[in-house]
Amino acid sequence: MSAALGLARRGLGSVWPNPSVGCVLVRQGRVVGRGRTASGGRPHAETEALAQAGELARGADAYVTLEPCSHHGRTPPCAEALIKAGVARVFVGTQDPDPRVSGRGLAMLRQAGIEVVTGVLEDEARDVLAGFQCRVEKGRPLVTLKIAATLDGRTATHTGESQWITGEMARARGHLLRAQSDAIMIGSGTARIDDPVLTCRLPGLEDRSPVRVVVDSRLTLQLTGKLVAGARDIPLWLLTRTGNPPERLAALGECGVEVIEIGPGPDGTVDLAAALRELGDRGLTRLLVEAGGHLAAALLRQDLVDRLAWFRAPMLIGGDGLPAAVSFGIDKLADAPRWRPLSAASLGTDMVEYLERL
């Protein structure tokens, strides 16, 4: 199952709207087939592993990170494929949260006389599945807010200088987060000041750049910026409020930008909760936010952040530096969002901590 989970992790960021699943087939103590969900979501992991195993799948044990599907879509059910292949036992990491499947795949296998064992390395399996589960249960992608800050929580000096607070190893880890995400989101301020590209530039993973998403209520994104320049090569989605000038919408469209109009929230800007639901409707399961202090605060204020990836550099800037999040209305400590540590690692002189919303 550990090997199957490793395969599933390789697919993160490239298989949406489907979950990333890994499958390993073992016969008489020897691995005879392995597979993961292919880029774009198909073929499924079980199909890939069975094709590799061929006749050796008969009598084998299947280790699958997620309950095999039981419904007919573009491909036949994976549970049916395992039954036809004649596997003897199926070990499952976690049950599928999709109501079309949930429990039905397991029941189909058992009815065919196949022994089924569930909950194998379930915590790890649920972690890989977290984005898909969030979209199923909340209708939006799992939101990870990535912050690179000093020890006193500052992301730039008072002049706006921020390159580079963290070192090369930390920046490489940040690019890995991009490769494992379906989309990356910034605000219009970050787009205007930094003029970023928002691609994954790790050697060997350049093709894993996520969809770029910019929250831009007033359509201030420069047509001459790097994001727009690359819009025909790597998707660029612009989340804006309704009522912007039609000629501006047309100009962005001609550059290859997909403009998504969302109704305004209480403050007159883009309704972020509605925007995230729209991204979920489009199939996104894992969203990385590399926001400035204003967008970060807006997401935190509305409790729309599920995880933090906090990169911490061993330096101090002081109170006049730009904060990781501007004020978002916390009067009492009891009202402050709290987080559960998931893991931490040293990256040269920097640290990265991963935390989950309690």
What would you say this structure looks like, in words?
The chain is an alpha/beta fold and 358 residues long. It has eleven helices and 16 strands. It has a nine-stranded mixed sheet, sandwiched between helices. A five-stranded mixed sheet has the order 2-1-3-4-5. The chain has a two-stranded antiparallel ribbon with strand order 7-14. Strand 3, helix 3 (78-85) and strand 4 form a beta-alpha-beta unit. The longest helix has 17 residues, at 122-138. The protein starts with a helix and ends with a strand.
Q: What order do the helices and strands follow?
A: HEEHEHEHEHEEHEHEHEHEHEHEEEE
For the termini, the CA-CA separation is: 28 Å
Counted by DSSP, the helix tally is 11
Tell me, rounded to a whole number, the average pLDDT: 94
Instruction: Give the low-confidence spans.
Output: none
Structural class: alpha/beta
Multimeric organization: single chain
Strand coverage percent:
15-25%
Kindly state the number of beta strands: 16
**Shape summary:** globular
Strand line-up in the sheet with most strands: 11-10-9-8-12-6-13-16-15
Helix content: 25-40%
The rounded Rg comes to 22 Å
Question: In this structure, how is the largest beta sheet organized?
Answer: 9 strands, mixed
